[in-house]
Amino acid sequence: MTGPRDRGHVMLAAATTVVLSGSCSFGMPRGATEQGEATFALWQQYMVAGVVVAAIVYGLIGWSVIRYRRRRGEDPEALGRQFREHRGLEIFYTAVPVLIVVVLFALAVRTGNEVDDVADDPDLQVHVEAFAWGWRFAYPDHDVVVLSESSGEGVTGPEMVLPLGATVRIVLTSNDVIHSFWVPGFLYKHDAIPGRTFEFDLTPTEVGTFSGECAEFCGLNHAFMTFSVRVVQPDEFDTWVDQHASEVTT
Asked: Which of 122, 126, 150 lies closest to 137, judged by CA?
């Protein structure tokens, strides 16, 4: 038979496994940019906090059910020992959740500021213009323009090429209605609003191709308003620029 000490060890091992699992991704991509990695780190902190709080709450519920269950021979109408107030306990279980919320809020603000921070001197600028229903990617410092074909089913969206490790300034706008620049693999989304220009930085940390799309319903062909971002080594990016300078690529 399993003794109380063995059961305690099993429960401790299970709790440890749950907490350690909270530091994993739980299906969320880790973010292929420095900004995405910061967002993923915040997700981990929130997940660990949630797992710990849930473990405590469910542990107390289980303990209460077992410890204060009605036993044989007891009056079925009895409610058990009651107490009306316990100021210390009430202050504790009020203060702890407030403290948790304050800490999580501070972490979120810090991460938001980190993600929104822009460099004084970015390595590359890409002007992104959204329109119904496509994209225009312009590299003003390299005289390269990538433009969508007419959107529709089966039409491949345009490709933005970025160098690995470079701080890329995205200058985003729309020329008709509200669109949204979304790259799930980067853990980043930003609305493109006509008449307004938004600037943000992306610093790719992984080589590969990442799908993107408009995440704001914008009309008939919204579902086909896709694009991709291909992150390459810096020397490969330089070769790509040399091949496409002074031309419009579709």
From this structure: 126
Q: What is the pLDDT of residues 15-47, one digit of tens each?
A: 444 444 444 666 778 889 999 999 999 999 999
Joined together, the tokens standing for residue 211 give: 């799908």
Q: How far apart are CA 144 and CA 241, in angstroms?
A: 7
Residues, the chain, total?
250
Name the strands in the sheet holding 226-232, side by side, starting at the edge strand that comes first in the sequence.
Answer: 159-163, 226-232, 208-214, 179-183, 188-192
Q: What angle do CA 28, 33, 34 make, to 5 degrees?
A: 105
Confirm if 222 and 130 have CB atoms less than 8 A apart.
no
Type of residue at 37: E
Among the listed residues 83, 15, 21, the one whose alpha carbon sits nearest the alpha carbon of residue 48: 21
Identify residue 70 by its one-letter amino acid code: R
pLDDT digits (tens, 9 = 90+) for 96-152: 999 999 999 999 999 999 999 999 999 999 999 999 999 999 999 999 999 988 777
pTM for the complete prediction?
A: 0.77
d(CA 165, CA 206): 8
| Structure-block tokens of residue 144 | 């390269």
Mean pLDDT over each residue of the chain, to the nearest integer: 86
Percentage of residues in the chain having pLDDT higher than 70: 86
Beta bridge partners of 232: 163
Tokens at 229, concatenated: 């971002």
Give me the pLDDT at residue 184, please.
93
Do residues 216 and 180 lie in contact, with contact meaning Cβ atoms separated by under 8 Å? yes
Across 143-186, where does the E strand assignment appear?
144-147, 159-163, 168-174, 179-183
Using DSSP's 3-state secondary structure scheme, residue 60 falls into helix
Q: What is the token pair recorded at 184?
A: 């799930």
